[in-house]
Amino acid sequence: MTTPNGMPDNPGDPENTDPEATSADRAEQAAEEAAARQAADSQAGQATEDEISPELEAEINEAFADIDPDADGDGEVSDVEQQLAERTEDLQRVTAEYANYRRRTERERQGIIDTARAGVVSQLLPVLDDLDLAAQHGDLGEGPLKALSDKLVNILGGMKVESFGAVGEEFDPEIHEAVQDLSQGDVKVLGTVLRKGYRLGDKVIRTAMVLIGDPED
């Protein structure tokens, strides 16, 4: 039963409700669409992970170039010879993929080691700064503090940690942090070193803090 304006007496009655227009159905449809998008994104990510690197693809192609399906040289490729060639290709592909996996794993492992080592060294840099200041003021002497400083420097040297930033060294904005430029000419060198820089292998852990000056005659 409807009113003169076309509206039912009880709009909330199930018989007068459009199933396709209910909020529950819309929510369910939205959930299904979200699940479909998530599945598509997952498949796209998996495809990216499964892509073969150009280096690996080159190795595989080079290995396949040496495969001759006509193993007996009679000019005809039998079913057995074809299957043998295919199995050889599969074996070489698996071997190349495993070699690529080992190289990638080794790089990742070394990266984790270098990051952890750099973190430890960064925590020790304030101690090295204090020892440098003590040495500049003549407080190290030849006592226990001097022995401790030498041991710490030797340990870090064994870890391939090197300091840089010496007076007269050419200024390099990549590794030197300039607090003030007191130079007058075009050639810029380190006039004063306020804080040494440190590198671990080829990686700069901390830049050197310096004042820029002119080179001495």
From TrEMBL:
Homodimer. SUPFAM superfamilies: Coiled-coil domain of nucleotide exchange factor GrpE (SSF58014), Head domain of nucleotide exchange factor GrpE (SSF51064). One of its GO terms (cellular component) is cytoplasm. The keyword Cytoplasm applies. GO terms for biological process: protein folding. Residues 1-79 are annotated as: Disordered. Keywords: Chaperone, Cytoplasm, Stress response. It is found in: Cytoplasm. PANTHER family: GRPE PROTEIN, GRPE PROTEIN HOMOLOG, MITOCHONDRIAL. Residues 32-44 have a biased composition (Low complexity). Coiled coil: none annotated. Its main location: cytoplasm. Participates actively in the response to hyperosmotic and heat shock by preventing the aggregation of stress-denatured proteins, in association with DnaK and GrpE. It is the nucleotide exchange factor for DnaK and may function as a thermosensor. Unfolded proteins bind initially to DnaJ; upon interaction with the DnaJ-bound protein, DnaK hydrolyzes its bound ATP, resulting in the formation of a stable complex. GrpE releases ADP from DnaK; ATP binding to DnaK triggers the release of the substrate protein, thus completing the reaction cycle. Residues 48-79 have a biased composition (Acidic residues). Belongs to the GrpE family. This is Protein GrpE. Pfam families: GrpE (PF01025). It comes from Corynebacterium deserti GIMN1.010. One of its GO terms (molecular function) is protein-folding chaperone binding. It comes from the Bacteria.
